[in-house]
Amino acid sequence: MTDSEREQQAQHAADTFAVIDPGDVQFRQNDDGLVEAVLGDGSVHAGIRVAPAFPITRPNSFLYLFDGDEKELGLLVDPRRLDRESRDILLAQADQAYFMPHITRIIRVEESMGLGIAQWEVETDRGYSAFEVVSRSESVWFVGRDRIVIRDADGNRYLIEDMSALDKRSRRLADLYI
């Protein structure tokens, strides 16, 4: 994506949603462990939930913020501009919101004949994982030339960041089952 396209996306978001300037907000944890947002007008919103707007292509560049009542506070653009403490708290929330292990090696894939269910065993950046994929057509997405998202039967998502970076055996297994 070009810088011009990114700017267009940001402008579209600004026209559609309330945009929160990183200089006008601070994040902190209250005594109950909930994340609070303190906006520039002094209002405090507890129970902040974060949802990345572009979770795969730009995971922490545009973040939707919701309060404890699920009311949308707005879209935070470029959280890198937050103070360090606020940024650390907010990005930890974003990581929890969109947990997606990156597959680094495919150990085994075995498809159940006639059922359309494939059993996967993989190594990820978070360790070993085994999961089932029910329907290839509904559970595998190409999000770029060599980037693939796989959703398992429980709704968890796994990312193959770059198919060409996988070892030869992993690529062969992926080619058979993706």
SS elements, strand count: 13
- Sheet with the most strands, sense and barrel status: 4 strands, mixed
- The assigned structural class equals alpha+beta
What is the rounded distance between the termini? 25 Å
Protein described:
With 178 residues, the chain is an alpha+beta fold. Helices cover 24% and strands 39% of the residues. The strands form four sheets. A four-stranded mixed sheet has the order 1-7-6-5. The protein has a three-stranded antiparallel sheet with strand order 2-3-4. A three-stranded antiparallel sheet has the order 8-9-10. Strand 2 and strand 3 form a beta hairpin. The mean pLDDT is 85.
Quick description:
The chain is of the alpha+beta class. It folds into two domains: 3-97, no CATH class; 103-177, no CATH class.
Would you spell out the secondary-structure blueprint of this structure?
Elements: H1 3-16, E1 19-20, E2 25-29, E3 35-39, E4 44-46, E5 49-54, E6 58-66, E7 72-77, H2 84-97, E8 103-111, E9 118-124, E10 127-133, H3 136-139, E11 140-142, E12 148-151, E13 157-160, H4 168-177
Parallel strand pairs: 1-7
Antiparallel strand pairs: 2-3, 3-4, 5-6, 6-7, 8-9, 9-10, 11-12, 12-13
